Amino acid sequence: MGPAELFPTAREAVFTWKLQELAGVVVRPGRRLAEGQVVDLWLNPVWPASPRRLRGRDLLVTVGSCVVSEVIDEADRAGFTYRTLPGHLENGEETFLVSTDAEGRLVASITADSVSAHPLLKAAGPISTASQTMMAKRYISGLTKLLDRHVADSARTDT
């Protein structure tokens, strides 16, 4: 993802739900995450465009609620795991982690262990699995763009 010097920026994106926001996921409450915190998730179906408004309301798809079950905050690793709660479209957990490796590079990983909980998603079979892969790519893409902007902004202020 880039040099290890970008770790603080990536860490902050993970701990403030920016990673989700950049992928078109709205998290409420959007405050800094903490173990035991319960959040509600909505998906912007027209990402990367802003959700369109209809009669004063954002067009967002309800995904469900999750609880932050683990927070990792170490010198070279930062991230969290959240577990879905009843009513979520999926049943399982997802982990978001940024770290630095021995070669001085920033690494990001997103892992999910879940099954479809909604009957329509169960019927969709492989399409549901493909959507999880697509979301992981959206998270990484958003973080990459954020880090690229950070590097560009730093270069402008250094000149």
SSE order and pairing:
Layout: E1 2-3, H1 7-15, H2 18-22, E2 25-28, E3 38-43, E4 53-54, E5 57-58, E6 61-73, E7 77-84, E8 90-100, E9 105-116, H3 119-124, H4 126-158
Antiparallel strand pairs: 1-9, 2-3, 3-6, 4-5, 6-7, 7-8, 8-9
Beta-strand percent range: 35-45%
Which H/E pattern describes the elements? Answer: EHHEEEEEEEEHH
Unreliable spans: none
Number of helices: 4
Round the mean pLDDT to the nearest integer and report it. 85
The percentage helix is 25-40%
Please tell me what the overall shape is: globular
β-strand number: 9
Distance between the termini: 24 Å
Count the domains. Answer: 1
Strand order of the largest sheet: 1-9-8-7-6-3-2
Whole-angstrom Rg: 16 Å
Structural class of the helices, strands and pairings?
alpha+beta
Summarize the structure.
It contains 4 helices and 9 strands, in the order E-H-H-E-E-E-E-E-E-E-E-H-H.
Word description of this protein:
The structure is a single chain. This protein has 159 residues and is α+β, with helices and mostly antiparallel strands. The chain has one domain. The chain is 33% helix and 38% strand. The chain has four helices and nine strands; from the N terminus they run βααββββββββαα. The chain has a seven-stranded antiparallel β-sheet. β8 and β9 form a beta hairpin. The chain is globular. The chain starts with a strand and ends with a helix. The mean pLDDT is 85. Pfam families: DUF1990. This is Cytosol aminopeptidase domain-containing protein. One of its GO terms (molecular function) is metalloaminopeptidase activity. InterPro entries: DUF1990, Peptidase_M17_C. It comes from Brevibacterium linens.
